[in-house]
Structure formats: structure tokens, C-alpha cells
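Input (structure):
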């Protein structure tokens, strides 16, 4: 997993400010994730976030606040500024994979995700969880406890959960990079379709609920 420097992150935020001022959108989705959403190893325009933005056009604005190597702790630290800066309507929390790969306590990850859910709602944004799973070599007990966090929080806090549906990529030729972890450019449209299928009905329903 790779970390961006603070300088690189500030430059990214500045670029997003330019985009924000240049366009008017119906609603704003903030994607707060790790390498899966940052598009590690692929060009930015070929990542699933950019592909989803292309599909949606001017209907929605997507802010990609993802950083390769990020954890739930890192996301929790960065979230307040992102919420204040972009005032999103929705926040997709695609975090936790690196917590698991580093063997961090599951309860710590759970607390961080819960805190991010609360921060989103305090800011008037609707949080969305992206479920994660670990490779089988991490042991069944830890892997099962890790995976169970997402549906548990989804039920407890009434948060939309996008279940992890990418297992097939790991066993399909050409879908995973040589590091054995990160999806290739060929896999990005598949990831985009999984997330799009989950988000679109939810966002439409939420818009109808909030309509005066």
C-alpha cells in the first residue's frame, strides 16, 4: 500500500476546489477510500470513480477523497475537513481493508467507522458503507470478525451497505495486478457497475424523501 504526502493531498484538494467552482450539480458524493477507490496502479481517468462520474455526467458531482494506503483512522482524521470543504450529500466510506491487512484490532476499526458515520450525519450527509473482506490467509477467526463489522454497523445505524462482491476478480485472469491485491484497469468498469447499481436507487429514493 502506498501513502501520498501531505503536499500531494493539498494539491488534490485544490484541484477539486477548481472543479467545484466551475460546475453546478444536483447532489455531491464524497468517496472516502483507500487504494481501491484511489485507483492504485491505473490512470486516474480509468479508475472506477472517474468512470462513474462519466456515467452520471452533470447529474451528480463526485469528490474523490481517497488515498492509497489509508486506514479508518486516517479517514476519520481527514473527514471533518472534507465535509466542511465540499458539503456532500452522500459519503461512501470505502475503508477498513488496510486496517485488516495490518492486523489492527477489529474493535478499533469498528469505532472509527462508527465515528465517521456520526460525523457524516452531523454534517447533513448520508453515509454509505462499502463492505470489505480479507484474503483467506489471515485466519478464519479474524477474517470473519472483520467482515462482520460492516453488516453489523449497517443494521445498527441504518446505513446502506454495499456488500463486497469482488471475489471473482481475484480468480479471473487479467483482473488483478502483479502485487496480487489491486485491481487492474480491466477490472475498474466491473467495480463501477457494482457500486453504481447500489448507489443509484438509493440516491434517487433519498432525493424523493428530501423533496419538499
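Output (sequence):
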Amino acid at each position: 500500500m502506498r501513502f501520498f504526502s501531505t503536499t500531494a493531498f493539498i494539491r488534490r484538494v485544490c484541484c477539486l476546489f477548481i472543479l467545484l467552482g466551475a460546475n453546478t450539480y444536483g447532489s455531491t458524493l464524497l468517496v472516502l477510500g483507500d487504494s481501491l477507490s484511489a485507483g492504485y496502479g491505473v490512470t486516474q481517468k480509468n479508475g472506477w470513480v472517474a468512470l462513474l462520474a462519466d456515467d452520471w455526467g452533470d447529474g451528480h458531482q463526485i469528490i474523490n477523497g481517497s488515498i492509497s494506503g489509508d486506514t479508518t483512522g486516517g479517514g476519520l482524521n481527514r473527514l471533518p475537513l472534507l465535509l466542511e470543504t465540499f458539503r456532500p450529500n452522500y459519503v461512501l466510506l470505502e475503508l477498513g481493508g488496510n486496517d485488516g491487512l495490518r492486523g489492527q484490532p477489529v474493535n478499533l476499526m469498528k469505532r472509527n467507522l462508527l465515528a465517521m458515520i456520526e460525523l457524516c450525519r452531523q454534517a447533513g450527509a448520508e453515509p454509505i458503507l462499502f463492505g470489505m473482506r480479507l484474503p483467506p490467509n489471515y485466519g478464519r477467526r479474524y477474517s470473519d470478525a472483520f467482515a462482520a463489522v460492516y453488516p453489523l454497523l449497517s443494521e445498527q445505524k441504518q446505513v446502506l451497505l454495499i456488500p463486497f462482491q469482488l471475489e471473482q476478480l481475484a480468480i479471473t485472469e487479467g483482473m488483478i495486478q502483479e502485487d496480487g491485491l489491486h485491481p487492474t484497469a480491466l477490472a475498474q468498469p466491473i467495480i463501477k457497475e457494482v457500486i453504481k447499481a447500489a448507489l443509484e436507487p438509493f440516491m434517487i429514493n433519498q432525493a424523493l424523501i428530501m423533496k419538499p
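Notes: Confidence is low (pLDDT under 50) at residues 1-24. The longest strand covers residues 27-33.
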